Known about the structure:
The structure holds two protein chains of two kinds. Chain A has two domains: 4-78, 2-Layer Sandwich (Alpha-Beta Plaits); 84-157, 2-Layer Sandwich (Alpha-Beta Plaits), CATH 3.30.70.1150. Chain A contains four helices and nine strands. Chain A has helices at residues 17-27, 56-68, 97-110, 130-140, and strands spanning 4-12, 31-39, 45-53, 72-78, 83-94, 113-118, 121-128, 144-150, 154-157. In chain A, the strands form two sheets. In chain A, strands 5, 6, 7, 8 and 9 form a five-stranded antiparallel beta sheet that branches. Chain A has a four-stranded antiparallel beta sheet with strand order 2-3-1-4, covered by helices on one side. The two termini of chain A are 32 Å apart. By secondary structure, chain B is α/β, with parallel strands linked by helices. Chain B folds into three domains: 11-177, Thiamin diphosphate (ThDP)-binding fold, Pyr/PP domains (Rossmann fold), CATH 3.40.50.970; 198-343, TPP-binding domain (Rossmann fold, 3-Layer(aba) Sandwich); 370-546, Thiamin diphosphate (ThDP)-binding fold, Pyr/PP domains (Rossmann fold, 3-Layer(aba) Sandwich). A six-stranded parallel beta sheet of chain B has the order 3-2-4-5-7-6, sandwiched between helices. In chain B, strand 2 (29-32), helix 3 (39-45) and strand 3 form a beta-alpha-beta unit. Chain B is globular. The N and C termini of chain B lie far apart (81 Å). Chain A binds chain B through residues 11-12, 15-16, 19-20, 23-24, 27, 57, 60-61, 64-65, 67-73, and chain B through 126-127, 130-131, 134-135, 138, 140, 155, 160, 187-190, 312-314, 317-318.
Amino acid sequence: MEEKQIIAIEVEDKPGVLSRISTLFSRRGFNIDSLTVGHTHKEGISRFTIVVKGDEKTLEQIRKQSQKLIHVLTTESLKKEQAVMREFAIVKLKYDEKSSLKINELVDLYGARMLDSTNEVLIVEFSGTEDKINLVFNDLKQFSVLESLRTGKIGMHIGQ
Amino acid sequence: MSEKESEKNPEISGARALVKVLELEGVDTIFGYPGGANLPILDELRKSTIRHVLPRHEQGGAHMADGYARVAGKTGVCLATSGPGATNLVTGLANAMLDSVPLIAITGQISRSLIGTDAFQEVDCINITMPVTKHNELVFSSQKLVEALKTAFYLANTGRKGPVLLDIPIDILEETYAHDLEISVELKGYNPTIVGNVGQVKRALKILDKAERPLVLFGGGIVSAGAVNVFNQFIRETNIPVVRTLMGTGVVDDNDPLYLGMIGTHGHHHANQAIQKEADVVFVVGTRLGNRALVKNQLFAKNAKIIHLDIDPAQIGKNIETNIPIVGDIKVVLEDMLTRISKKPIRKESAWTGSERKRTKLSTRDGASVMEIIFTQLSSIDLQIHISTDVGRHQMWANHFCTNPKHLPLITSGGLGTMGFGLPAAIGAWFADPQTPVISISGDGSFMMNMQEFVVAVENEIPLTVLIINDHRLSMIRELQRSDFGGRFVSHELGSSVDYVALAKAMGGSGSRITHKEQIVPTIVKSIKSKRPTIIDCDLEKIIKSSHLTIDSVAS
């Protein structure tokens, strides 16, 4: 299995920034595994968390090429051991009397939240590390999953 | 009305503001092709001090701006309309991108309200040109126009130079607004490093001092940084031998005892030996170490420690592992190094390289070695000339044998290798330096690609000489088909049906032929002195026959 590296890119929120980042990655032959982007507490500044396939040398080249883009402010490679990583999942489940007990156990076990319950259909929200969400999805196989959705990762280094 | 209000900027059209900003930025020439979406700009240019040159194809205009920029040391500006005008610029932009040439391309775009509706002459210019520009922007409000223009000028000619494109909807060009021409530009995310890290500079000098077989490899970055003089000072002081990449012409004199030659796929034997096997320290300055220079990554300087000085941090360590990276402006860093060396000299007393010099690696099949005669003769002409080449076999031979410092640096498409670059680039070069005649060395294949621009030379009375190295075929292709495709020649013959002399006259210029080697210098000099745009058909096979040379002569 190929190595995965994580890069955090802070950008000025200008039109087309997402397009620029993905075009850059594509033309340099960098493989994007997942990508998230969203606002930060700083006005006009957004943050990308991108997971790429490749080794450290590749990541360093990616980081340097991204830094060249005019609206990119900072770039940082995230080391898993020194970072907090999170992703989300929401899952729509069909439930009945038999399964509802087990579902409740699961929700307690994973610290999940019930977002909605309508006509025997539940929507549950999970959050955590990639490994935890993988476990969740594995455990959900025994239930009747109607829809599901995982986000990409977001993360940041611990400490300053 | 308050004082502030009365000092408000006058309401002017976007087109007027644009032309005013160009003037303020010191633009004196613009290479532009009109179309529906950019006519407001052309209208304003009528009353401007800026000279407007009309190419015959937008690609020609882009290459003209490129050639202009290389000679003027200023940003070249080209203009096209929306749709096909914009797409016709792509090759020119990619060319400027790969050779790091400062260029601004302005494209008209359809009205904002029509964008995304597949309107007449609409293309998504921004996404099409994104990978081939240093930066591009679709100006979406009048408020942003001046800022976008000033940002473009700032970006094009700083750091690692390159092409910037601005896509401007026609309704912004037409509508009036109180444009602030004095607006200042702030780019939080762009801060090129100028001064090299002191620690790295010291380390570099230290290992150069200790080196037994040091070598300097330089490229086009020296010219781009305006560092030719300081670089020559540096090698004089240190007495370290040098080699160059294709783009490093006009930096070191060909006769300099320290100059070993050109490295790479089409380089010199001795230079390649020195860098691949013999050197123990290689100081790489102002080159991105492209694959043609490296040949094979694993072969490159494998026994040496590598110092890499470049303004673009992404080039350092991209293709080759570097021991000492130095990010900074070459001129500034070399000046710093010279200061340090003056206090603590580094000087290699004996040249570790042998006296064997510059044996060429170029194939001499199919009459190629006649080009050595042609370009050596050309180099003997003692006149200041700007020379451009096109792409192919002639380009490599010109690179080796055009050695007269009055003719260098060569204006050549190194990174993209664009056939059709030479003629418009030579024209652009003349607009940058109208006192100096220009020569476009071209192959018969390359010439055909943008030959329409010859008309621009005629109507502007440019002392342009197009020297067509006519071998009636695409010779580089032939060489590749011979070496890599077992001699299965296909689609490379161009035939002899074109009469270039008649063609020149048909376009309003002069034409002549060279069929004997004694005619080379007189014909070229005559063309230069006539100051008329001239096409010279230099027929290789006829020269070989009349000189009683063999087809496969050995070059030096």
